[in-house]
Amino acid sequence: MFALLTRLLRRGHAPGVPPAIPPDGAPELLGEAHADEPVPAPVPAPQTAPDNVVPFSPPESRYHRIHPQTMALVEEMQSYAGFVEIMQAHLTNVCGETQAAAEDILGQALNIEGSVSGLVRHVGDTMQSDRLVDASDAMHLSVETGRAMIAELIRQHAETQTEIRHSLDTVRALSNRMRSHLGEIEDVRRYTDLLAINARIRIAGLGKNTGLEVIAEEIRALATQTGRLASDLNHELTEMDLMISEDLIAKVSSQQRTDDARTEDLQRSFAKLAEHMNTLNQFQADLIREVQRRGEDMREPLNTLCGSIQFQDVARQQLEQVSRALSMISDHFVALSSAIIHDGAPPDSSIATCLSSILGSYVMEQQRAAHRGESAATAPKIELF
Amino acid sequence: MKTVMLVDDSPPILMSMEAILGRAGYGVIKASSGEEALHKLQGGARPNLVITDLNMAAMNGIDLIRAMRQMAVTRFTPILMLTTESAMDRRQEARSAGATGWIVKPVQPADLLAVVRQMVPGG
Q1: What are the sequence ranges of the domains in chain A?
Q2: Does the distance separating the beta carbons of B15 and A103 come in below 8 Å?
Q3: Percentage of residues of chain A with pLDDT beyond 90
Q4: Is B10's CB within 8 Å of A316's CB?
Q5: Distances from the Cα of B103 to the Cα of A327, B37, B113, angstroms
Q6: Per the database record, which ranges form the Response regulatory domain (chain B) (predicted)?
């Protein structure tokens, strides 16, 4: 058919325009019998003949026997062949273009899927890469180590506090024992003082210049000194008690409160840090899951697209049948017109028979049903034998 | 990896079926004609399943099945027809030739995969 269209175009026929009628009155046939015949030269336009010239009488056309209306019908039938060529070219273009488009759409969709899959893999690999996992593990380890160190610091601090309190208690106990000893010293002082008074009385009874007055005086001075020392010691112990109870213990308690507050802050910070890290890990896991899910989500639409693209094959086969039918009609017309012009035998079968024969060449049941004007029988789309 | 041979003279069909089966985990061998399919089988291709079109230019799908059933290596290989044809007499013809099943185009990918998995588990 393409060859025929090419021949038509080479001979100067515009598509869809009936071929020129040769000078003998017969239209040029499009069938194979005339395909290689030379193209007749155009007939010059008739001019007015001079009076002394006998007018030229052309020989009688060999087609004079054909009725002009039949000839017009032959022309129509032959012009149909050119039209069929054009329609077939259109159908071929439609098939080619839809096939190219289908391949392109599918190719692009697969490219997109490939890119998305690559991205999903990249994100997954990055999120689960050794470096990231190692860094995350190291951060977790640092946080846990920090928390353990703080706990140890708190424990040591509490131990120190306990030791300090214990030491202070020991000092207090010592102080109390010293106070007890001070009582005994006071008793000694009072006894010494009494002894000194007694000695002075006895010495006074012995008369003057016995030399014993000096000893009595020394005993009294010893008692006085002992009393002063005991008083000083008592005063210093009181001050020490005061310092221990009001100053040292207060400072230790205050420091403990401050330290407790700081360690609590530190603990809270580390707890927050651990919480943020867990959140970060959760986000990371969610991100991986989401990216993977989106990647998976693409599979179904792409599968559907792959299934939908089959329409092109179905449509192509239907168009091929249309093209085949058009060829059949065209060939029949050519054969019929040839028979009319050459007074030959008509085609063996009628056009109606030809068209009926198309029924056998259909590739789909729905085409056969449509041809018969029936609705297609419902057959299972999938059948395993 | 389980392998499926696709035989179809339509490039978009080959592309789409390859995408569907490939992403389901099957290896795919493509042939654009019955002759090419036989050539590949003779060259050592050993598919676990063959899916062939019916209407192809030189050798149609039923002729291909007959030829494959003559080959020792594909005598028992499951063969599915994937075609736009749905006539019962053609199905019967394919069945007699040795086809394992008949699928009418266009087919939903999920339906196709269900049949393929039934024929070749563990793709």
Answers
A1: 2-35+64-127+310-370, 130-291
A2: yes
A3: 1
A4: yes
A5: 31, 19, 12
A6: 3-120
pLDDT at B88 over 80: yes
Q: Which pLDDT value is given to residue A6?
A: 38
Question: Residue B91 and residue B54: Cα distance in Å, rounded?
Answer: 10
Residue B88 and residue A350 in contact, taking contact as beta carbons nearer than 8 Å: no
DSSP single-letter state for residue A32: G
Token pair for A54: 């006998």
Beta carbons of B84 and A385 less than 8 Å apart: no
Q: Which residues of A touch B13 (CB under 8 A)?
A: 309-310, 313
Q: Do B88 and A368 touch (CB under 8 A)?
A: no
Rounded Cα distance between A347 and A351, Å, is: 9
All residues of chain A having their beta carbon less than 8 Å from the beta carbon of residue B69 are none
- Looking up residue B9, the CATH number of its domain turns out to be 3.40.50.2300
Domains held by chain B: number: 1
Phi-psi region of A251 (alpha: psi -120 to 50; beta: other; left: phi over 0): alpha
Q: Chain B residues with CB inside 8 Å of A381's CB?
A: 86, 103-104, 107, 111
Q: Answer yes or no: do B10 and A313 touch at CB < 8 A.
A: yes
Structural domain harbouring B46: 3-119
Whether residue A47 contacts residue A116, with contact meaning beta carbons closer than 8 Å, is answered with no
